[in-house]
């Protein structure tokens, strides 16, 4: 996607109360399978790792990934996508250098900054780093509304897949970061092997059927 298309994601000026300086520091609907998995778009079952005799610590079950913080080239452009298209709310802004957005009144789910990346370019495909960030929607109709908003904004999908445990849309933000929009199926519906092992996979997601739930 070229700079002219990305510039179209700039939607107004997003401001919030707060200090004026930052803290220190493929085709549109046709592409229905993500680039997440190599051919043949299936996951190989892997037995759980054996316990490490050197450590018995297990992270608490209630632990979550609280937020992701992205370096962006143009803060206003990034806000045009995350606020203007996806609908996150701006909770804090530090001039043209940093902003924090969230859903549901949380302090922030996504941080955006230009401290070291102002006017920068995305890393080459062979670089290490973020593959994608994933945004979990509470229901299938909510995911359908997100799909409608993305398509109405003229943003192409990289893919759209049913993983058995979830349904997912794949796209890119203005800085070429991978973004997954998805909804989980209830755990009781997750596909499992006879021994109870979870079986995720990748099959074609019917986007037209999903869009019918957007209302």
Examine the coordinates and then state which fold CATH places here, giving the name of the CATH topology: 2,3-Dihydroxybiphenyl 1,2-Dioxygenase, domain 1
Task: Give helix % range.
Answer: 10-25%
H and E order: HEHEEEEHEEEEH
Shape: globular
| Proportion in β-strands | 15-25%
Structural class: alpha+beta
Q: How does this structure look, described?
A:
By secondary structure, the chain is α+β, with helices and mostly antiparallel strands. The chain has helices at 3-7, 75-85, 140-152, 207-211, and strands at residues 68-71, 89-94, 98-102, 110-113, 132-137, 159-162, 166-172, 178-184, 203-204. It has a single domain (7-16, 27-42, 65-120, 131-214), classed as 2,3-Dihydroxybiphenyl 1,2-Dioxygenase, domain 1 (Roll), CATH 3.10.180. The strands form two sheets. Strands 5-8-7-6-9 form a five-stranded mixed β-sheet. A four-stranded mixed β-sheet has the order 1-4-3-2, with helices on one face. A hairpin with a 5-residue loop joins strand 7 (166-172) and strand 8. The chain is globular. The two termini are 29 Å apart.
